[in-house]
Specification:
- With 205 residues, this protein is mainly α.
- 76% of the residues lie in helices and 0% in strands.
- The model has no long low-confidence stretch (mean pLDDT 93).
Length: 205
Amino acid sequence: MYNLLEKIVQHNETHARWLNTLSYMENAGARKISACEHPSEVNLIQLKHAAEEHRHAYYLKKQILKITSSICENYRNKELLASIATRQYLHNLDIKTCKYLREVFHLNKEELKYAAYLFVTYAIEVRADELYPVYQEILTKYSSKIMVKSIILEEEGHLEEMVSQLDKFSPDWKIHAEYILKIENNLHDQWIKSISQEVFQENYV
């Protein structure tokens, strides 16, 4: 991960597409959180998470302007890194998590949506707590104008909130979370592998 991000940061166009890819994923996460909302029983934390993930997507998109104004105006495939893997990552995590939770907890439709929100968001926040600090370390090393420190602080807060909600959901949630984390880890490895192949191809060597 460190070597990949170091390579990305040193190439402006690739760096812009990386930021756009992160923005896309934050936006996709926000949309999935909103899609999991109950028609009436929506709590403050869930609204807060959706709003903050949308803001992260906006913030990352604006950071691109510190590098270039000529690319990454939207989320078209050519403006993302590993576009197929990027689009499948969160979607596949959601599908696999729902399948597991349905088998284990025997939930109805609305209950399953909420449970998926809890476990998928938890897995993504664990990942964000690993990825963003490494990214910031490299940004600092190369005196980049890009900063993600504000996102790191909010993601840390999100993780604490997800743990609190999961504690209320099930006393043995950690057992199930470990299984979800393994699913996420496999999908993350596929995502990173796809990005690495793209970044380290001949055009970027």
